[in-house]
């Protein structure tokens, strides 16, 4: 699949992608639909691109005026492609390219205070993991961990992509604001909904930062 940035400063810049089907990036067409709907929402925002793959959404956001982006991807080979795209396309931007396990991380990279708290999150788990979006499961816990004070702003937005037939349960720190049915997927728009009594510390039993680069 040929992927390129479709709008903004880096328009038409091509993204390096791995051969085969190791990643499932937003296609150029779907990305156009998503960013058309977001409009100017993304400008000046501190972004987290979780399950970043080769950086499709985060780099597109930076191209359109986002202030910074923390890219999170655990696969070693895909992370290498992600790093290459960041180094060759967004050299003048505030970025962190972090190889860490989404199911265990705190989402707070070292020496990146200027990138926190996140104002906007792209959360794009592999479809095979979507069944983990259930109360008590690791993926659901990861989404709520993202919503903690100091990690995301109280009014932060998240776009979470799932297969079309996947329904979401209630989250602790997020509420469902909208759901876009696009192509063969659902893109859920979540808004921060942090309870006054929400814990602000990380549970070390389930959130341990792994290698950072």
Task: Describe the protein's architecture and organization.
The structure is a single chain. This protein is α/β, with parallel strands linked by helices. It has one domain: Rossmann fold, CATH 3.40.50.150. 20% of the residues lie in helices and 23% in strands. The chain is built from four helices and seven strands. The protein has helices at residues 28-38, 56-63, 76-89, 138-146, and strands at residues 46-50, 68-72, 94-98, 118-123, 152-163, 174-182, 185-192. Strands 3-2-1-4-5-7-6 form a seven-stranded mixed beta sheet. Strand 6 (174-182) and strand 7 form a beta hairpin. The radius of gyration is 16 Å and the shape is globular. It starts with 27 loop residues before the first helix and ends in a 21-residue tail after the last strand. Residues 197-213 have low confidence and may be disordered.
Question: Number of helical runs?
Answer: 4
Q: What name goes with the CATH superfamily? A: Vaccinia Virus protein VP39
- What's the overall geometry? globular
| N- to C-terminal distance | 27 Å
CATH architecture: 3-Layer(aba) Sandwich
Mean pLDDT: 90
**How would a textbook summarize the main sheet?**
7 strands, mixed
- Parts with pLDDT < 50 across at least 5 consecutive residues: 197-213
Q: Largest beta sheet: what is the strand line-up?
A: 3-2-1-4-5-7-6
Count of distinct structural domains = 1
**Structural class based on helices, strands and sheet pairing:** alpha/beta
Radius of gyration, in Å, reads 16 Å
Beta-strand percent range: 15-25%
CATH topology: the name is Rossmann fold
Elements, N to C (H/E): HEHEHEEHEEE
Q: Report helical residue fraction.
A: 10-25%
Q: Count all strands and give the number.
A: 7
Highest-level CATH class: Alpha Beta
């Amino acid at each position: 699949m040929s992927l390129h940035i479709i709008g903004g400063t880096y328009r038409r810049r091509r993204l390096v992608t791995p051969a085969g089907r190791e990643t499932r990036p937003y296609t150029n067409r779907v990305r156009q639909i998503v960013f058309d709907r977001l409009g100017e929402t993304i400008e000046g925002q501190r972004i987290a691109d979780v399950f970043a793959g080769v950086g499709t959404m985060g780099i597109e956001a930076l191209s359109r005026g986002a202030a910074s982006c923390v890219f999170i991807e655990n696969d070693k080979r895909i992370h290498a492609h992600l790093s290459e795209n960041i180094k060759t396309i967004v050299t003048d931007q505030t970025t962190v390219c972090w190889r860490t396990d989404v199911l265990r991380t705190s989402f707070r990279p070292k020496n990146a205070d200027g990138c926190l708290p996140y104002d906007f999150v792209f959360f794009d788990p592999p479809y095979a993991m979507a069944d983990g979006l259930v109360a008590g499961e690791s993926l659901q816990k990861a989404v709520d961990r993202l919503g903690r004070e100091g990690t995301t702003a109280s009014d932060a937005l998240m776009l979470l992509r799932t297969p079309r037939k996947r329904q979401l349960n209630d989250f602790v720190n997020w509420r469902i604001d909208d759901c876009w049915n696009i192509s063969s997927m659902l893109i859920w728009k979540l808004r921060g909904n942090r309870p006054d009594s929400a814990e602000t510390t990380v549970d070390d039993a389930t959130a341990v930062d792994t290698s950072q680069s």
